[in-house]
Design brief:
Oligomer: single chain
Number of strands: 0
Structural class: mainly alpha
Distance between the termini: 170 Å
């Protein structure tokens, strides 16, 4: 082998080592970029989860408020209906019992019995 041949082989070996270093750096760079991308994606996913959780909680509050308002209105309507029924019942009883009350009052006034008071002593 000649010196030129040996120098050519040495140049090829150095070029191969340089290429291996470049490939190794490229792999490290790619690996680091993947880690960074995963980390960034995890942050975005976490932020998205927090946003959706907050939206869900707000929605639940609105649903509970709407249910409460609906229940409140329903209870008020039921109370108004019950009050109206009781007032109607009182009016009916008043109308039905009016004649009896008037008869009892007249009877008490007209048929008064004269009795001495219980503390009265004859003597």
């Amino acid at each position: 082998m000649s010196a030129a041949n040996s120098r050519g082989i040495q140049t090829l070996l150095e070029a191969e080592k340089e290429a291996q270093k470049i490939v190794h750096k490229a792999r490290e760079y790619r690996t680091q970029r993947l880690k960074d991308a995963r980390s960034e994606a995890a942050k975005e996913i976490e932020a998205y989860k927090k946003q959706k959780d907050l939206e869900f909680q707000n929605h639940q509050k609105q649903v509970r408020h709407a249910q409460y308002e609906g229940k409140k209105e329903q209870l008020e309507a039921e109370a108004q209906t019950e009050i109206k029924q009781k007032l109607d019942e009182i009016r009916r009883n008043g109308i039905e019992g009016r004649a009896k009350v008037v008869d009892e009052l007249l009877k008490a006034v007209v048929t008064a019995e004269a009795k001495p008071h219980r503390n009265f002593r004859s003597g």
